[in-house]
Design goal:
Blueprint lengths: L13 E5 L2 E5 L12 E4 L2 E4 L1 E6 L5 E7 L4 E7 L12 E10 L2 E10 L5 E10 L5 H5 L10 E2 L5 E5 L2 E7 L3 E3 L9 E8 L4 E12 L18 E4 L3 H15 L1 E4 L2 E7 L11 H10 L6 H12 L19 E2 L4 E3 L4 E3 L2 E2 L5 H14 L4 H4 L3 H12 L45 E2 H20 L5 H18 L1 E4 L2 E4 L2 E2 L5 E2 L17 H11 L2 H4 L24 E2 H14 L2 H17 L7 E2 L4 H4 L13 H15 L1 E4 L4 E4 L10 E8 L2 E7 L5 E4 L6 E3 L18
Parallel strand pairs: 32-36
Antiparallel strand pairs: 1-2, 2-3, 3-4, 5-10, 6-7, 7-8, 8-9, 9-16, 10-15, 11-12, 12-13, 13-16, 14-15, 17-33, 18-19, 20-23, 21-22, 24-27, 25-26, 27-28, 29-30, 31-32, 33-34, 34-35
C-alpha cells in the first residue's frame, strides 16, 4: 500500500509566538521530533527537538498555560525523587519564552522533600532546518549534525540560517550518539528540607535572508478597558490582543511598517487577504496598523502581467515566502511572491476607505492615492477576463491555487449535490467586495478632487444589476444567492456562509439583506457554535471539511458584523453567542477554524486538527465583536458617528473606554436596556443612528443558543 503523507495534527499542541519565531510542543512541554513540533523562524524549523529529562526519565506533566503574551509554563513532577509517599515532593516548572530571534527556557527544579535530592537534568536537542512546506506536507528531514560552538555551546547552519544553543553552567555533549541529538546537562543538588535551582538555556537564530522580521517598536493600537455583564467578552479581548501583539511582522527594508502575520505555524508571513481583514477589524483601536498594512502591500502592488505568479498591474499580492512553496502531493507550487487571490485588491481599497472614515490623516492617505487608482484600474480590466461585468478567477498555471477566494481549497466550490464546480469561478462574496470597492473608491476620488467617481458608481450599478439577474436561485428556504457561477455561468446552488459577506457591502437591498439573514439563521447553518461554511443539508457537507461544513472564526465574525451594522440583530446575537462559547472552549484563544458539529453532539466545539492558533483574523475577530456590541460606526470626513449597539437586553450591558476615532480616545456605554452613549468624541462629530433594515418575518427569526 502506498504511504500517504498527511498534514500533521496540532490541535493538542501548545503554541508560543513572538513573530517571526514560534514554538509548538506537547502539553507536557516536550518538543519531540514528530509532526509539526518544533521551533520555527521565518518559514524554517530551527529546532526539531527539545526533550527534558531528569536522570534520563521524563517528568510527568500536570498542567500547561500561558505565561505572558509570548510565553508558556509547563508544570511536571519527578515522583521517583524525594520522599517515598504518594504526594510528589520534586516539581519541575518549565518556562518557555519565544523571542524575535529564538527561544529562552528556564527550568525551575524545586524540592519540599525531607531528604536531599541529587539528580542530573538534561535537555536533548535536534535541528533539521526543514522548510515549513515540508513539515506541512507530513514529510520530514533528517536531523543535522551539531557543531561545537566557541562558548561551550553548539549549533547548526545550512541555507544561510545559523542556529546557536547555549546553556548557562551546562555541560554540552555533541559527539558520538549525541552528534545529531546534542545534550545540555546540569547537576542539581538540593538540600533536605527543601530547596530549588534555576537552569537556563537559549536558542539564537541568525537569518539574513528572511523576508519578514520583528517590528522595531511595540504596537501603537489602543488597549481598551471593557466592563461587560458577559465577562467572556473582556477575557476574549485580552487574550486576543496579546496574541495580535505577538503576530506583528515587518519587512527587513521597512521595519517601521507593521502588518499581522496570518497564523502559526503555516502562515506566519505576509498574506494580503488575511493581513487586510485583520487590520480592518482592528480599526476601532486606531488607524496605525491599517496605514502600515496598506503601505506594505502597496509597495508590492503588481506592475506587469505575469501568468506564472498571477501578477497584474494594480493587483495586491496573496502571499510572500522565502522561496517557492511546494506541496507535491497536492500539486501545488507557488512562487515566493504570489498574486493568486481574487479579492485582496478590493479589500485593500475597502481598508483604505474605512481607515479614512475612522480618521486616517490626509498625509497618510495622499501617498496611497496612485495605488488606489491602480487597484481600481485592475478591478475594471484584469478582474473581468471575459468582459461579462462580473469578477472571476482561474489558475492558468496548473500548479497555483485552483480557488482564489478566501475558501481556497480545491473542493471548496460545490453544487448542492456535492459536485465540484469547474473554473473559471465567479464567487458571490467577491461581487460584494467589488461593489463596495467601486463605491468606496468613488468616494475617495470625490473627496480628493480626482476624476472617475461617477464612472465607478456606474460600474457598481451595472454590477448590482448583473448580480441580481444571475446569482439568485430558488433554494430550500426560498430565494438565495448562489455560492458562485461556474465556467458555464451556471449558479452553484449550495447554501454557504459566503453570502453573509454580502451584508453591509451595499450590493443587497433591504429585502435581500433580510432574506440572507433568514437563510443564515436556519439550524442548518447556525446549528453549531457559529456559522457553518456550508449548510448541513447540502451534499458536500462534512463538519471537518476545511471549507464545506466547518466553522471559521473570522467568517462568523465578518457575517456577524454585517448583520449588526445592517440592523439584523437577532441573527447577529446568535453568532456572537457562538463565538463566545467557542472562546470559552479554547481558553479564549480562538482557532482559525473548528468543526461544524451540532451543538448538542458533544456540548463544545470539536477542534479542527490542523487549525492555526493563534491566527490573526481570528484574534482580530474579538475587536469586531466588541465594535458590534457597542455599535460604533464613525465617518470622520462627514462629521458623523453612528450608534447601533448589539448589546442590550440579550447580551447585557457593555462599557468600553479607550476606543479611538481620529486618534482620540472615546468611551461608549450601552445599558442593559440598550441605551447607548458616546463620550469624549472629537467635537466636530455629531452622533446619530443608522437606518434599520426590517426584521425578518414572523417564524423566521434567528435560532437562539439558549
Amino acid at each position: 500500500m502506498t504511504e500517504r503523507h498527511l498534514q500533521p495534527l496540532l490541535h493538542e499542541l501548545v503554541g508560543v509566538v513572538h513573530a517571526p519565531t514560534s514554538a509548538l510542543g506537547d502539553a507536557a512541554g516536550q518538543i519531540r521530533p514528530v509532526g509539526v513540533q518544533g521551533v520555527f523562524h521565518a518559514d524554517a524549523r530551527v529546532l526539531s527537538r527539545a526533550e527534558l529529562r531528569v536522570d534520563d526519565r521524563e517528568p510527568e506533566g500536570l498542567a500547561a498555560g500561558a505565561d505572558g503574551p509570548d510565553g508558556a509554563r509547563f508544570v511536571s513532577v519527578a515522583r521517583w525523587l524525594g520522599d517515598p509517599h504518594p504526594d510528589p515532593t520534586v516539581r519541575v516548572d518549565r518556562l518557555r519564552r519565544v523571542t524575535r530571534d529564538g527561544l529562552v527556557e528556564e527550568l525551575h527544579v524545586a524540592s519540599t522533600a525531607s531528604v536531599g535530592v541529587r539528580a542530573t537534568v538534561s535537555v536533548d536537542l535536534g535541528c533539521d532546518l526543514a522548510p515549513i512546506e515540508v513539515v506541512k506536507s507530513g514529510d520530514s528531514r533528517p536531523a543535522l549534525p551539531a557543531r561545537p560552538g566557541p562558548d561551550g555551546g553548539f549549533g547548526w547552519a545550512a541555507g544561510g540560517v545559523t542556529v546557536a544553543v547555549h546553556g548557562e553552567g551546562a555541560t554540552a555533549y555533541v559527539d558520538g550518539e549525541h552528534a545529531t541529538a546534542p545534550r545540555l546537562a546540569w547537576p542539581v543538588d538540593l538540600p533536605a528540607g527543601g530547596g530549588s535551582a534555576v537552569l537556563r538555556w537559549r536558542l539564537t537564530v541568525t537569518d539574513p535572508r528572511a523576508v519578514v522580521v520583528a517590528p522595531v517598536d511595540g504596537p501603537d493600537w489602543a488597549r481598551p478597558e471593557v466592563r461587560a455583564d458577559d465577562r467572556r467578552l473582556a477575557r476574549l479581548l485580552d487574550r486576543s490582543l496579546a496574541d495580535l501583539r505577538a503576530l506583528r511582522l515587518a519587512e527587513p527594508s521597512h521595519p517601521e511598517d507593521v502588518f499581522l502575520g496570518a497564523g502559526v505555524p503555516w502562515f506566519l508571513t505576509l498574506f494580503g487577504r488575511d493581513s487586510l481583514w485583520a487590520a480592518r477589524m482592528m480599526l476601532p483601536l486606531g488607524t496605525g496598523l491599517a496605514a502600515s498594512t496598506l503601505r506594505v502591500l502597496a509597495r508590492r502592488q503588481g506592475t506587469r502581467v505575469d501568468p506564472s505568479t498571477g501578477e497584474a498591474p494594480g493587483k495586491i499580492l496573496h502571499e510572500l515566502r522565502r522561496h517557492e512553496f511546494a506541496l507535491s502531493d497536492a500539486g501545488l507550487r507557488l512562487p515566493p511572491v504570489y498574486y493568486g487571490t481574487v479579492d485582496a485588491t478590493m479589500l485593500w481599497i475597502n481598508l483604505l476607505h474605512d481607515a479614512w472614515r475612522w480618521g486616517l490623516a490626509a498625509e497618510q492617505v495622499e501617498p496611497l492615492l496612485p495605488h488606489l487608482e491602480a487597484a481600481l484600474h485592475w478591478l475594471g480590466t484584469h478582474a473581468d477576463a471575459d468582459g461579462d461585468g462580473l469578477v472571476e478567477y482561474v489558475d492558468t498555471t496548473g500548479h497555483g491555487l485552483a480557488n482564489q477566494g478566501w475558501k481556497d481549497s480545491g473542493d471548496a466550490v460545490r453544487f448542492a449535490d456535492g459536485t465540484i464546480a469547474r473554473a473559471p469561478i465567479v464567487l458571490a462574496e467577491v461581487q460584494g467586495y467589488a461593489y463596495e470597492a467601486a463605491v468606496n473608491g468613488a468616494a475617495l476620488l470625490d473627496a480628493i478632487g480626482r476624476p472617475g467617481g461617477d464612472a465607478w458608481r456606474e460600474y457598481a450599478q451595472r454590477l448590482s444589476g448583473r448580480f441580481r439577474a444571475t446569482f439568485w436561485v430558488d433554494g430550500r428556504h426560498g430565494p438565495q444567492p448562489a455560492l458562485a457561477l461556474d465556467r458555464d455561468k451556471r449558479p452553484v446552488d449550495s447554501l454557504t456562509s459566503n453570502i453573509g459577506h454580502l451584508l453591509g457591502t451595499g450590493l443587497l437591498d433591504d429585502d435581500e439583506s433580510t432574506q440572507v439573514a433568514r437563510l443564515l439563521a436556519t439550524e442548518e447553518m447556525t446549528g453549531g457554535f457559529g456559522l457553518r461554511t456550508m449548510s448541513r443539508a447540502d451534499g458536500g457537507f462534512s463538519p471537518l471539511s476545511y471549507h464545506c461544513g466547518s466553522i471559521w472564526t473570522h467568517d462568523t465574525a465578518i457575517v456577524l458584523g454585517g448583520l449588526a451594522r445592517t440592523g439584523l440583530h437577532d441573527a447577529a446575537r446568535t453568532l456572537a453567542e457562538g463565538l463566545l462559547r467557542t472562546a470559552e472552549a479554547f481558553d479564549y484563544r480562538l482557532p482559525e477554524l473548528y468543526g461544524g458539529d451540532d451543538r448538542d453532539s458533544l456540548g463544545r466545539p470539536v477542534p479542527y486538527p490542523a487549525a492555526c492558533r493563534p491566527q490573526a483574523w481570528s484574534a482580530a475577530s474579538a475587536v469586531l465583536l466588541l465594535q458590534a456590541a457597542v455599535g460604533l460606526y464613525p465617518d470622520v470626513p462627514s462629521g458623523r458617528v453612528a450608534l447601533r449597539p448589539l448589546a442590550g437586553p440579550e447580551l447585557g450591558a457593555v462599557a468600553v473606554s479607550g476606543l479611538r476615532i481620529a486618534g482620540t480616545p472615546v468611551d461608549v456605554t450601552v445599558t442593559g436596556y440598550g441605551e447607548v452613549s458616546l463620550t469624549n468624541a472629537p467635537a466636530h462629530l455629531a452622533p446619530g443612528h443608522l437606518p434599520t433594515v426590517p426584521a425578518p418575518r414572523t417564524g423566521t427569526e434567528a435560532l437562539p443558543f439558549r
